[in-house]
Design goal:
Rossmann fold, UDP-N-acetylmuramoyl-L-alanine:D-glutamate ligase, Protein-Tyrosine Phosphatase, Chain A, 9-stranded mixed sheet, 6-stranded mixed sheet, 34% helix, globular
Length: 472
């Protein structure tokens, strides 16, 4: 745990007591702050009270003394309207920040401080979890104490204090960037940008601006790596490269770069400072299938190259990557039938990355729909043997699929898994795949995408006891 000492002997409010909120309470109390906290859930309040917080609704906090509001990333900061707790903090001039900002004030770019360690921060619409996990795997394989957290795994303040070999490897969401104005990573990675979270940022322009902000905040000697294959990310790279020069590294899949990191026909090339040198064949890496994962691997290579000088060591680590739960994760087999858990595909762009990987798909989709639904996936519908629709999006998705791919409305995940498996096994398809790639948020029926993916795994295991064992 990293104590948050920035507010020692001061009053601080923590609103929202999920994982990052609870972590903030513990770290602030350890750092000597007087913590006031609130959450609608009684168990969360009880846990925070045991950690030393004074529990009361935010309207009852001593706002005349509150120096900062530590806000859960899930609480609206600006859109569709600021939460009342945010408005209360603004009225008294209290800072409104998150746990990542508390972390940033402890792990400072000032190299005279003792709590310094390099920070790699990964953001983007899709691929950031796989890229972050792969960066941690590479660093650990090459002898570093890689501490992975943020929007993946542990909250940042739950990570151990740094030692001489520590590198912090953080996934940072757009919500967290909004609440972390002082985060100055040594390496900032932008995977890609596609429409997402527009309801929380108000417009696509605002969403893009938030993503760019993280790259603009890098340390004075920091570097960036940017996937330049989409229009928004390419524009960000062009703008920042003019200032950063060779400290800005472009990454592409499918086209040769005169300078940068690129993947061509499945082969990874390094052309950062010299003629392109082949690093490895990514098409042979079992747990990184598809062009989207090649982008993740290329970005992870770019992020770790400043620390690991031997490209062969990085290549070996990439080849041994075990994959990420809930992202193109094979969770079972029944004879010729494979079950793929891609629950982390919470928007259409992410689902597209899975759909392109298989020719004969029994597709489980739906949940709480994002703007645009699955309209952008029409070119991939010929790969769908049948779709099984669940959650709030069933009617919208049915209208989009009508006339392009067969579908049925299953409503629930358990019904969808059972019927998809039955249909797939009865087919004459050589290699059928039951694919959970919802293209939706999970919050209508599940706590989060992990809960949804775990439930899928459970349903697959119930079909036959050997199904999961066959995939392991």
């Amino acid at each position: 745990m990293i104590p948050a000492r920035a507010f020692a002997n001061s009053d601080v409010g923590v609103f929202g007591l999920a994982r990052s909120g609870q972590s903030s309470v513990v770290a602030l109390a350890a750092g000597g702050a007087r913590v006031h906290a609130w959450d609608e859930k009684e168990k969360a309040r009880e846990k925070a009270a045991r950690a030393g917080a004074t529990i009361a609704p935010f309207g009852e906090w001593p706002w005349e003394r509150i120096k900062a509001l530590i806000l859960s990333p899930g609480v609206p900061l600006t859109h569709p309207r600021p939460h009342d707790a945010v408005m209360a903090a603004r009225r008294v001039g209290a800072e409104i920040i998150g746990d990542v900002e508390l972390f940033a004030r402890e792990i400072t770019p000032d190299r005279r401080k003792t709590n310094k360690a390099p920070v790699i921060a990964v953001t983007g619409t899709n691929g950031k979890s796989t890229t972050t996990a792969l960066i941690g795997h590479i660093l650990s394989s090459c002898g570093y104490a890689a501490e992975v957290g943020g929007n993946i795994g542990k909250p940042v303040l739950d990570l151990p204090a740094p030692n001489g070999r520590t590198i912090f490897d953080l996934e940072i969401s757009s919500y967290q960037i909004d609440l972390a104005p002082g985060l100055a990573p040594d390496i900032a990675v932008l995977t890609n940008i596609a429409p997402d979270h527009i309801d929380r940022h108000g417009s696509m322009e605002n969403y893009v601006a938030v993503k760019m902000r993280l790259l603009e905040q890098i340390a004075s000697d920091g570097q960036i790596a940017v996937g330049v294959d989409d229009t928004h990310s390419a524009a960000i790279f062009t703008r920042l490269a003019a200032r950063l020069g060779t400290k800005a590294v472009p990454v592409s899949v499918g086209k040769v770069l005169g300078r940068g990191i690129f993947v061509l026909d499945g082969a990874l090339y390094d052309a950062r400072t010299q003629r392109a040198a082949k690093v490895m064949d990514l098409s042979a890496v079992a747990h990184l299938p598809g062009a989207h994962n090649w982008q993740n691997a290329a970005l992870a290579y770019a992020a770790t190259r400043p620390f690991v000088k031997d490209m062969r060591a990085i290549a070996g680590a990439i080849a041994s990557f075990p994959g990420l739960p809930h992202r193109m994760e094979e969770v079972g087999r029944l004879g010729k039938l494979r079950f793929i858990n891609d629950s982390k595909a919470t928007n259409a762009d992410a689902a597209a990355r899975a759909l392109v990987c298989f020719p004969d798909i029994y597709w489980i989709a739906g949940g709480k729909a994002k703007a645009g639904g699955i309209e952008s996936l029409r070119p991939l519908f010929p790969r769908v043997r049948k779709a099984y629709l669940i959650g709030e999006a069933v009617d919208e998705f049915a209208r989009t699929l009508e006339g392009f791919a067969p579908y049925e409305i299953s409503h629930t995940l358990d019904q969808a898994v059972t019927k998809a498996a039955t249909d797939a096994q009865a087919s004459n398809v050589v290699s059928p795949v039951v694919l959970l790639s919802p293209a939706c948020a999970s919050f209508d029926q599940f706590r989060d995408y992990e809960h949804r993916g775990d439930d899928f795994r459970t349903r697959v295991a119930e079909l036959a006891p050997a199904a999961v064992r066959e995939a392991s």
